[in-house]
Amino acid sequence: MMRKQTPWLALALLTLAPAALAQKTKVDAPPKKLYCWNENGQRVCSDALPPEAVNYAREEISAKSGLRTGEVNRTLTAEERAQAAAEAAQRALDKAAEDTRRRTDQAMLMSYRTEDDLRRVFNERTAIVDNNVQTARYNVASLREGLISLLQTAGDRELSERPVSAEMTQNIRLRHAELVRQRQLQASFESQRGELDIEIEDILQRYRTMKGSLPADSAPAATTP
């Protein structure tokens, strides 16, 4: 006849299980830390981060060792995020422009044997801008003379106590507005002309530098027109 075994081992395991589980939970629990931030000019530290301080810059400090374990920057405002995005985009554009410039420099060396060959590339652009400048200057001078004539006529009519017609008043206004526009165009074209001179000189300087750095036997071959 078999004896019935007392489940002492099972009872022991059941007794120890909660303690072991508690010990494991204690071991696995994340280490406590303090949060420190500035609020209204005062340094504040707490073992819990209140909702109003979530967006503040803060330090994280180990409650056990007292050493700093981390740092969190403050949350950027919408304007600051937009500014950061714009700056990142500008950096990308600058890098792309620099890459394009390097490729352009290499192509320039391969395409133009002499500086005179390179200068001829700019002749057409220079001629177009010069023509725009001269046309704007002519238009400004012409409009100015016409406006002076109209103003003199209107002044003579007023001095002789004759009314200035609505049509003449409108013509004076329109001619003045067009004169202002043509002056703006003239200033823009003259600015473009100055910038073009700077651009040409910069490219020529780069070309001379690159040509000077090439070995004598590696000069680019002349291109066939």
Automatic annotation (TrEMBL):
Residues 1-22 form the signal peptide. Keywords: Signal. It comes from the Bacteria. This is DUF4124 domain-containing protein.
